[in-house]
């Protein structure tokens, strides 16, 4: 039941609501409805659905979308996880809260449609990719701290999936990668790679010996 401004305050002080707890209640409501609060406390909101980029297993690049709902307002909060399951783990992440479902539809459309995925499978892919990459020396993207509550990162997760490709890391360079830095971390390990001609020259100029014949990107 909504309390009127001139009603007795719910705290039992005997004062009118507007002269007692109204200001604090308004501040609390604003905090609870802020996107920042929702994102950092995502685990408190019911899970709605999860999606994954179509055909991601072909190149190992899995974009995952996790959606939760605010029951009181029917608004949504979401996080996207951009994963390189073959090598680098969590490459990027983005989140927002207190949005209409049209924002979710726009993300799905942007990726040319996405397939539904089971929540625990989603957790296994994200946490497993991060663990695999960490063992190679790669930390997750800095926004991991912001989005990790969406998948309850601190709860147990059974990881049975094998990461990498054909039993070893497989690095496919991206346009914004620091290729020399990445190859240096892989140096001394058995790994496959695909670089552009210019990138392979950068690596050679840094004095890094690449294993085997290079895979070349167009």
Give the topology, please.
Elements: H1 22-32, H2 35-40, E1 47-53, E2 61-70, E3 75-84, E4 89-99, H3 101-110, E5 114-116, H4 119-136, H5 144-147, E6 170-172, H6 179-186, E7 192-195, H7 197-205, E8 215-216
Parallel strand pairs: 6-7, 7-8
Antiparallel strand pairs: 1-2, 1-5, 2-3, 3-4
What does this structure look like?
There is one protein chain. By secondary structure, the chain is α/β, with parallel strands linked by helices. Helices cover 30% and strands 23% of the residues. It has seven helices and eight strands; from the N terminus they run ααββββαβααβαβαβ. The strands form two sheets. It has a five-stranded antiparallel sheet. The protein is elongated, with a radius of gyration of 23 Å.
Task: Summarize the structure in short.
The protein has 218 residues and is of the alpha/beta class.
Task: Offer a few descriptive terms.
alpha/beta
Task: Please state the average pLDDT score.
Answer: 89
Secondary-structure-derived class: alpha/beta
Give the beta-strand count: 8
Strand order of the largest sheet: 4-3-2-1-5
Radius of gyration: 23 Å
Q: What is the CA–CA distance across the termini?
A: 64 Å
| Biggest sheet layout | 5 strands, antiparallel
Low-pLDDT windows of residues: none
Helix content: 25-40%
Instruction: Sketch the topology as an H/E string, one letter per element.
Output: HHEEEEHEHHEHEHE
Globally, the shape reads: elongated
Q: Number of helical runs? A: 7
Strand % is 15-25%
